[in-house]
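can u do me a favor
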């Protein structure tokens, strides 16, 4: 059934251009949003009140990450820098210059270091950089130089660049997970920089990778119209969620076996299609059965970013139309039990039921 009975969402109007990323902090009381208008914002998760902005970037904010205790906040921008901010008052603690636009940023577990990916720029290759950020040091004592830089050279066999799209730390900081625009997933050693493993997860670009809070599972969303669920211990592929359009983001619910998918055509293609065709909805899938069981409509452009509150009571979606919609689930969704297939009792033949039924007529 369509999830029409969800309460009316709160519209967060704080950005002038399309949304690139939305994220809750670990506790779920703050919602961070970033867009192409240079200014990330932070909102109160329970009522959508804007608490403040982080001012200082001069380009699109591609990615951001908040640490475990909501003390320090990282942003990755197309202006060629990553910035670290104090969550409490929005003051910029440190700016980390890169050679190209910074595409992704991620805190390690424990917050003593973070990693970034940057796009190729003129002669410089794409790079993965790891920075040390001990928690006891003040901003001016932190080093601006990366402890480790991993060069991502051109693929000589194809003679074209393969650019990184996302970066994340695997459990216990054992490796760095990097996704690429050719559909590959790679693991790198954060100490030596060696490539540990590569799997071709998708046929096209991987748009986003998202872990659950315990980092036991992760979801990749791709332009090949699918999202895939992997085990973060052995990178085993478990489930595939198929749609009929590119998937821009997909998140795992912490409280239910549900997955939320957001997508739509490329922003460029939207103007050439009728309003009805561009179905810009958040889709709900069952984690285990891979079935779609509901949608939430509302955006006027492809959904670029999704986040679900760790308490499982609300979710936020950000789209090409520049709005973030904060939805609160109603009681019927929260109380909803997932269907469990009935197992036949011992000695009972499943097909026996079907044969009996015509006799009733």
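np, heres the sequence
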């Amino acid at each position: 059934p369509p999830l029409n009975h969800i309460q009316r969402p709160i519209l967060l109007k704080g950005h002038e251009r399309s949304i690139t990323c939305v994220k809750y902090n670990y506790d779920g009381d703050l919602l961070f949003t970033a867009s192409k208008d240079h200014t990330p914002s932070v909102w109160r998760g329970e009522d959508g009140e804007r608490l403040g902005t982080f001012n200082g970037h001069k380009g699109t904010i591609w990615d951001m990450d908040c640490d475990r205790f909501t003390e320090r906040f990282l942003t990755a921008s197309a202006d060629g820098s990553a910035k670290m901010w104090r969550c409490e008052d929005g003051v910029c603690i440190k700016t980390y210059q890169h050679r190209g636009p910074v595409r992704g940023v991620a805190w390690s577990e424990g917050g003593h270091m973070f990693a970034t990916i940057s796009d190729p720029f003129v002669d410089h290759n794409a790079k993965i950089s790891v920075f040390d950020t001990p928690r006891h040091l003040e901003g001016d004592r932190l080093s601006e130089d990366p402890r480790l830089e991993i060069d991502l050279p051109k693929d000589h066999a194809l003679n074209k660049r393969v650019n990184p799209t996302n970066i994340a730390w695997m459990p216990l900081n054992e490796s760095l997970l990097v996704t690429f625009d050719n559909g590959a997933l790679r693991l790198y050693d954060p100490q030596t920089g060696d490539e540990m493993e590569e799997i071709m997860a998708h046929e096209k670009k991987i748009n986003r990778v998202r872990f659950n809070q315990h980092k036991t599972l992760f979801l990749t969303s791709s332009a090949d119209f699918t999202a895939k669920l992997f085990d973060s211990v052995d990178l085993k592929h478990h489930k595939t969620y198929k749609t009929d359009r590119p998937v821009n983001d997909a998140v795992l619910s912490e409280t239910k076996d549900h997955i939320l998918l957001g997508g739509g055509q490329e922003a460029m293609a939207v103007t050439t299609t009728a309003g009805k065709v561009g179905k810009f909805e958040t889709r709900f899938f069952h984690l285990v059965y891979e079935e779609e069981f509901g949608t939430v409509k509302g955006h006027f452009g492809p959904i670029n970013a999704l986040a679900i509150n760790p308490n499982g009571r609300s979710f936020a979606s950000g789209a090409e139309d520049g709005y973030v919609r904060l939805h609160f689930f109603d009681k019927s969704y929260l109380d909803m039990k997932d269907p469990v297939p009935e197992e036949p009792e011992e000695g009972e033949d499943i097909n026996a039921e079907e044969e009996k039924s015509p006799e009733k007529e």
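Confidence is low (pLDDT under 50) at residues 274-278, 352-361. hope that helps!!
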